[in-house]
Design goal:
alpha+beta; 24% helix; Glycosyl_Hydrolase_73; 13 helices
Length: 552
């Protein structure tokens, strides 16, 4: 009997959710809300149902709510910007209420974290929240990370879910297993608005306006109505929506975009699913008039295109990355969603040797070619011919077989810049310290013999000695920004460098409101070749993984 009552309560809640929702369920391009095809059988319009008050219409709403509740197999590739809220809300309401959470916050976070369901991760593995795999199995893809030298691309394995319902449950389980999110639950937060503020304060995201964005989504779609009284029913299922139905549709709100220029020589490849995304003359939704362009018949997966600018597009509180490409160096330029491009994996390593500049007029860049943040020209090597510079770091990329090598060097007021291997001569320690010989002359025979010294140079011995240490340390002075830092531990030493390494709880420190922290030392954990930084919080120093920091 109790189960029947609960099922009935859920049906009423879903009915209210359908009344409050706007729009149909559509199938469209991953980056476009046009060219729509209805996915709901029967084709009943939610808005017309909301406007109707007779018994027949109410019965239809309840029937649709029951259909959605029973359909637990909703997949990420069924989501569009237009149907995201109406599709996710009833499922999230069921999961949240079963786990003492607020449905309003769950839906708002799902919208922001997945770009309203348009991220590749959501479309291909039903992962709404970017939660990584804990067992090494799942969806393996290249992803952007921040480490010792800023942004880089690496392979990561993300959790893959059978359905969106499983992803929502996975998110709820994540909050339950991490005690620092205790104040996000109904038992501690008075409503979804306060829960949104609490989850930012707990360190879920470093964006200072993260809570504001969540609250804007909650208010925009009236998601508080999903929260009800915590039993699965909304507070008002008899809302009169005639006035809403009579209103004229509001003019479309344009997206905003922040642009970062690159250079005209950089190239990337088209991804395996590039044709799923459209080409635009401007970043999508940033202009009232924006023309879409069809892909050329000569375009194919793996084809090389030029890329010279990136844009971070913000629309309905969600941020997505776009690139400006062309099919020839001086060809027409078009904007496309980032998932249409395939950036190569960049491997970074340390090197204690030097390079010599081959000549003037070689180019110095802000970054390596082939990274998602693109590379800008910084300066030319005018007057630097024949000068030697210590290597700060080495980066290699492999595209279709050939490997390209880049060196990071420090040049006066320019600071750290990158130069291509073709523009320098590598000067190793053995060249600077050649193996010497010692002549011994015999007075009696007047013959000269040669005695060789050890083949291991002083530099080589020092390198061997260093690798035997659990950690290497380097001078570092600067600042970074905490990023999803709650996933990483604070330590009094780099793990593995001492016998008694202690972890410090985040609850014992006060995190700056702007998340900016001072860094006074850098370390490399030798065994795993991972980067660590010593940061200052409340006048005390702590070691933390480089993955917990952003560098601007």
């Amino acid at each position: 009997m109790r189960k029947k009552l609960m099922a009935k309560s859920i049906l009423y809640a879903l009915t209210a959710g359908l009344v409050l929702s706007t729009g149909h369920m559509y199938k469209a391009y991953a980056d476009d809300g046009s060219s729509v095809v209805p996915l709901i059988s029967g084709g009943s319009n939610v808005n017309s149902q909301a406007a109707s008050t007779n018994n027949s219409s109410n019965s239809t709403s309840i029937a649709q709510a029951s259909s959605i509740l029973n359909n637990t197999n909703v997949l990420g590739n069924q989501l569009t910007y237009d149907n995201f809220i109406s599709t996710i809300s009833p499922i999230a309401q069921q999961i949240a209420n079963s786990n003492n959470l607020y449905p309003s916050l769950m839906v708002a976070q799902a919208a922001l974290e997945s770009g309203y369901g348009q991220s590749t991760l959501t479309q291909q593995s039903n992962n709404l929240f970017g939660i990584k795999s804990t067992n090494g199995q799942g969806y393996n893809t290249t992803t952007g990370e921040y480490g010792s030298n800023g942004y880089y691309v690496t392979n990561s394995t993300f959790a893959s879910y059978p359905t969106l319902m499983d992803s929502l449950q996975g998110y709820a389980t994540f909050l339950i297993q991490n005690s620092r999110y205790a104040n996000v639950f109904r038992s501690q937060a008075p409503d979804g608005i306060q829960a949104a503020k609490n989850i930012q304060a707990d360190g879920y995201a470093t964006d200072p306006s993260y809570a504001t964005k969540l609250i804007n989504v909650i208010n925009q779609y009236n998601l508080l109505a999903l929260d009800g009284n915590g039993t699965g029913t909304t507070t008002n299922t008899n809302t009169n929506t005639n006035n809403t139905a009579a209103k004229k549709p509001a003019s479309k709100v344009l997206a905003t975009a922040n642009y970062t220029g690159g250079n005209t020589n950089e190239t990337v490849q088209l991804s395996s699913n590039f044709s799923k995304y459209k080409l635009y003359t401007h970043v999508k939704d940033t202009r009232k008039k924006n023309t879409t362009v069809a892909w050329s018949n000569s375009a194919y997966s793996g084809a090389t295109v030029y890329v010279d600018c990136l844009a971070v597009r913000t629309y309905k509180g969600a941020a997505t990355t776009w690139y400006r490409i062309s099919f020839s160096k001086n060809g027409n330029k078009y904007w496309v969603y980032s998932s249409a491009l395939n950036f190569p994996l960049v491997n970074y390593s340390n090197d204690s040797n030097k390079v010599k500049i081959k000549g003037d007029y070689r180019q110095l860049y802000s970054n390596v070619f082939g990274t998602p943040q693109l590379s800008k020209r910084v300066a030319k090597t005018t007057g630097m011919k024949g000068m030697e510079y210590s290597i700060q770091e080495v980066a290699t990329t492999t595209v279709n077989g050939p490997t390209t090598t880049w060196y990071q060097i420090s040049v006066g007021q320019l600071g750290n810049v990158w130069i291509n291997q073709a523009d320098v001569t590598y000067v190793s320690a053995s060249q600077k310290n050649p193996v010497t010989t010692k002549k011994e002359t015999s007075k009696t025979t007047n013959k000269t013999t040669v005695k060789k010294t050890s083949t291991k140079t002083t530099a080589q011995k020092a390198a061997i000695k260093k690798t035997n240490k659990p950690a290497q340390y380097f001078k570092y002075s600067g600042y970074g920004y905490l990023n999803h830092y709650g996933k990483y531990d604070l330590n009094n030493h780099i793990p593995g460098s001492y016998k008694n390494v202690k972890k410090i709880s985040w609850s014992q420190v006060k995190v700056p409101k702007d998340f900016k922290v001072e860094i006074n030392c850098k370390g490399i954990r030798t065994k795993y070749n991972t980067t660590w930084y010593r940061i200052v919080l409340n006048n005390k120093s702590y070691w933390i993984s480089g993955k917990a920091l952003l560098f601007y």
